[in-house]
């Protein structure tokens, strides 16, 4: 039995819910007797593991079988169970395979593969940390919910999808594609419940406190803040007076939120000096304040307050007793100086 056949048999006869790449092949004597038939693969309960060397062999065997199949079954309509099995193994081993993924799309459209089965396949794929950064896999998952006139979006378990994103960004930080998919989810959830923005804001802030240098997470936080500000403007931009006329409200609520957020960000800047991601986010917050000011004086007061904060850093008044790490202090001075210069241009 070839390595491909062993892998396919294990996937077919066991409810595998997690894949793993092992540092080396296990010893046959250490494998449970009922799983020795799959050696050198390791099957324990619902878990399946293979070494990196075996992974390369599997990729080669599967690609050769796929090429041979296409050579003898070149008709586009000839999509058998064998092709489904080949493409399933191919995307599990290497998600960034356009050909295999497009074939599976055709199978979904024709009803040969069900959407719930395909969603489970992607979740299994994402149990390997490296695969969580596959743009093809994330787009395929999004496509599964949208290809049929949004019919399946009504059945989408949003909480499950958010949990999947959370697990993937934990397995592989700085995961742009997982955060991008999460933004798409949030945009859909806003249409159903506008209050989801506050919940997502707080959860993302908690994530950032543990992953200071994750630029992709900060971009998601900025997306949430921007949507939150827009939603407040939409709900309160026009108020009716007793006489029936319309009055434009100010942006007091938005500025309150921005001030609270900047206070949180300032604490992080002092606690974790020298992180460019935080200083870039500081500029975003300043831009938000500029956008939602009611007059130029509010912007001038804000800029002066920021300059005082920068001067405190340059004078080293707060660093000694608030920072957890002073090894990046020179970088902190550089980033704060550049931020101050940027503010001057803004003024």
Give the integer mean of the pLDDT values.
88
Number of strands: 5
Q: Based on CA inertia axes, which overall geometry fits?
A: elongated
Report the structural category.
Answer: mainly alpha
Strand share of the residues?
5-15%
Helix content: 55-70%
Cα(first) to Cα(last) distance is 72 Å
The spatial strand order of the largest sheet comes to 1-3-2
Summed up, the helix count is 15
Instruction: Let me know the largest β-sheet.
Output: 3 strands, mixed
Supply Rg: 26 Å
Secondary-structure element pattern, one letter each: HEEEHHHHHHHHHEEHHHHH
Uncertain runs with pLDDT below 50, 5 residues or more? 238-248
3D structure, described in words:
The protein has 347 residues and is mainly alpha-helical. It has a domain of 97 residues. Helix content is 65%, strand content 5%. It has 15 helices and five strands. The chain has a three-stranded mixed β-sheet. A two-stranded antiparallel ribbon has the order 4-5. α5 packs antiparallel against α6. The chain is elongated, with a radius of gyration of 26 Å. About 3% of the residues have low confidence.
